[in-house]
Design a protein that fits this description.
The chain has helices at 6-18, 23-41, 56-70, 86-96, 109-113, 116-121, 142-151, 198-201, 254-266, 277-285, 305-312, 330-341, 352-356, 372-379, 387-401, 435-446, 453-475, 481-485, 488-495; strands spanning 3-4, 47-52, 74-79, 102-105, 124-128, 156-159, 181-185, 188-189, 203-207, 231-232, 242-246, 270-276, 291-295, 317-320, 347-349, 366-368, 404-407, 412-415, 420-423, 500-501. With 507 residues, it is α/β, with parallel strands linked by helices. It folds into two domains: 3-211, Rossmann fold, CATH 3.40.50.10260; 221-501, UDP-N-acetylmuramoyl-L-alanine:D-glutamate ligase (3-Layer(aba) Sandwich), CATH 3.40.1190. It has a nine-stranded mixed sheet with strand order 13-12-11-14-15-16-17-18-19, with helices on both faces. Strand 12, helix 10 (277-285) and strand 13 form a beta-alpha-beta unit. Helix 2 (23-41) crosses helix 3 and helix 16 (435-446) packs antiparallel against helix 17. It is elongated. The mean pLDDT is 97. Bound molecules: ligand NPW, adenosine-5'-diphosphate and potassium ion. Ligand NPW binds next to helix 1, helix 2 and helix 3. Belongs to the NnrE/AIBP family. It comes from Pyrobaculum oguniense (strain DSM 13380 / JCM 10595 / TE7). One of its GO terms (molecular function) is ADP-dependent NAD(P)H-hydrate dehydratase activity.
Amino acid sequence: MEVITSLEMYVADRNAEWLGVPRLVLMENAGAAVARNILKKYPHASRVLAVCGTGDNGGDGYVAVRHLHAAGKEVRVIALGEPREELAARNYQAVKRLWGVEVAVAQSPLELLALQDWLMWADVIIDAVLGTGIRGALREPHATAIELMNIAPAPKVAVDVPSGLDPDTGEVRDKAVKAALTVTFHKAKKGLLAPSAARYVGELVVEPIGIPPEAEVVVGPGDFAYLNFSRRADSKKGDHGRVLVVGGSLEYSGAPVLVAKAALRAGVDLAVVAAPEPAAYAAKAMGPDIIAVPLEGPRLSLKHVDRIASLAERFDVVAIGPGLGTEGETPDAVREIFRRLTGRKPLVADADALKALRGEKAAGITVYTPHAGEFKALTGVDPPHGLRERVEVVRQHASSIGAVILLKGRYDVISDGSRVKVNTTGTPAMTVGGTGDVLTGLVASFLTKTTNPLEAAAVAAFVNGLAGEEAAAQLGFHITASDLLDKIPGVIRKFAREDVTPASSRA
Ligand SMILES: NC(=O)C1=CN([C@@H]2O[C@H](COP(=O)(O)OP(=O)(O)OC[C@H]3O[C@@H](n4cnc5c(N)ncnc54)[C@H](OP(=O)(O)O)[C@@H]3O)[C@@H](O)[C@H]2O)[C@@H](O)CC1
Ligand SMILES: Nc1ncnc2c1ncn2[C@@H]1O[C@H](COP(=O)(O)OP(=O)(O)O)[C@@H](O)[C@H]1O
Ligand SMILES: [K+]
């Protein structure tokens, strides 16, 4: 039986919506599935009581109430408070307007105790109190609600997860509903299959609710849940990331600057460019935000390796490649730097660095960002045109190299060797030079926001594509890579939670 974690479920749910499947439809399908299973398992039950929490789990409960009422059952509802989430609230309001359904609100243990006769009245009790959104120790009146449901003789039908059970581990921290039947959605939550959970789960039924398989592969708003953009009130410089960019040469000075500027715009505290002198001085001339460390000579060479390796110690992420060129000792220097850092320092390798890394094994947090040509140089394989085949090829090479590979193109394919994500944002306007450098800066920045490099790369591709779309909405096929930079903050803020947490929360 396929399993899913509550976080993966949250992501699939939000990304299904990104694909065009409204979350209200998912909730309707979920609640209807609960009703259908109750009618099937308890055909003679005529009195149904639903106990609904204030989240979407409660929302599913309200949908089930509507369907069972429509099927001629006598239905009552105990609401543990007014739902806050829009979807649950809409279904709560719909149920309250049904004069044939009695609704009582109980926000305290006392009010629940006054409703004990309702629990005794029921032939079946729907447990729609807590699902995958359970956090921490049980609060009231949820704890009492679980207690009273367990005391009542009627069989309990749990919505998605028996309330009180940890959906990912199956642990019961305080108490949980002992259900006769659990109707879970889309895929079994991992915790439901834990041996210790059996006495709470009862019979397990997995019901599809209309989430397309692409929702677990496409990159969308849900993936931002893997990144932390919040900041403590007492933050200090460097807390939110230091990125070192090793790039540039006599010919190319813009590429490393685009990487650094993108990283800053995405939300790191410091972005430093270590580049051969001509590129370093050009970088300094480009503006006050970029710090440039000049490396003697016209291009990266072996004599710079020690300096860069020690410089890298002071950074969280190193991005290497943009604008380096492939002349002279540069490839040897790239290989030497890579071997010293991979597995010890989160790395993004892009552009000319990739040509030097063919045959190298990666370790730890390492992300490669090739376009098709660089992928061939890196692996010797021309990426196939079909998306399915491309996914398989990227997954295989990511696995054999031991790195996350983000293969850029109309659809970006990202894999860490086991999981795969496909990014569908972007526009043909982005074939202009430098958009890959902006992407590298985004990957480097997001590696300071999560420990999951696959998700850092996936969200970077998503943001880069949307920034390109926004720039092209104004300038059409006349955008430059620099036009993406100013779009980055707005795109991120559309999807990321950027809270300021009180300093006292320093646990
Ligand atoms: N694909 C999908 O994801 C789909 C999901 N669907 C359904 O949504 C469910 C997830 O919904 P969800 O995220 O709103 O969380 P949910 O389980 O309702 O709990 C949140 C509420 O509980 C409360 N609360 C939390 N911890 C508590 C505690 N310890 N003690 C006491 N209270 C506690 C919390 O209160 P707060 O912390 O906000 O004060 C909040 O009000 C999922 O299980 C499935 O049934 C379907 O619609 C189909 C599509
Ligand atoms: N035809 C396209 N449609 C949509 N997005 C594209 C297209 N071509 C490139 N992109 C996007 O532009 C960015 C840079 O890709 P690419 O041009 O291949 O890299 P580079 O700039 O390194 O050559 C990536 O985010 C990619 O998704
Ligand atoms: K539940």
